[in-house]
């Protein structure tokens, strides 16, 4: 099973990247994660879709197309989703070229130093994914609040409950993908 993994932060020391790295390192043996880097995705411009997608969005869409599901671990900015995430979803869920999010199982989680743990940002990402036709897993919800207290400088998740939560979340997502494939 292939899962496309997207971190919604470009920051080198991103706590969301650390959570995603942890999930990839602890992956179930049946899962192969493909990391999609949003750093080089140009700003969405529908004019640029004419005659096919530009190189970087085309490569990202190919990775998404080949994946059985997409996992997004993202921060929340100003109670919304980061622009880089919306930008990537606008390319991927194109109304002109192929919409690679249609019927694609998706799972969203996020980490924040604040208490609410990206609840509002996740809501926006899920709404956009649903608008693109993605099959968004609704439960479990994973809101990782006060995240820096749970992850050390070596990217190790020190909070046992969080480790368990992430493992259970991965299992739920794998089951969700398998359900959609039958
Ligand atoms: C934030 N942050 C933030 N956190 C939150 O829980 N709710 C919010 O609405 C916001 N808003 C916000 C706006 C902007 C522009 C920035 C830069 C930051 C704080 C944010 O959660 C924190 O910086 C995280 O560490 C960002 O995630 P990464 O980059 O560590 O993955």
Describe this entry's structure for a reader:
By secondary structure, the protein is an alpha/beta fold. The protein has a single domain, classed as Rossmann fold (3-Layer(aba) Sandwich). 37% of the residues lie in helices and 15% in strands. The protein is built from five helices and six strands, in the order E-H-E-H-E-H-E-H-E-E-H. It has helices at 15-25, 55-66, 83-92, 119-131, 160-181, and strands at residues 2-7, 32-36, 69-73, 105-111, 135-136, 143-144. Strands 1, 2, 3, 4, 5 and 6 form a six-stranded parallel β-sheet that branches. Strand 4 (105-111), helix 4 and strand 5 form a beta-alpha-beta unit. The longest helix has 22 residues, at 160-181. It is globular and about 50 Å long. The chain starts with a strand and ends with a helix. The model has no long low-confidence stretch (mean pLDDT 97). Ligand FNR binds at residues 9, 11, 14-16, 75-79, 112-114, 116, 118. Ligand FNR binds next to helix 1.
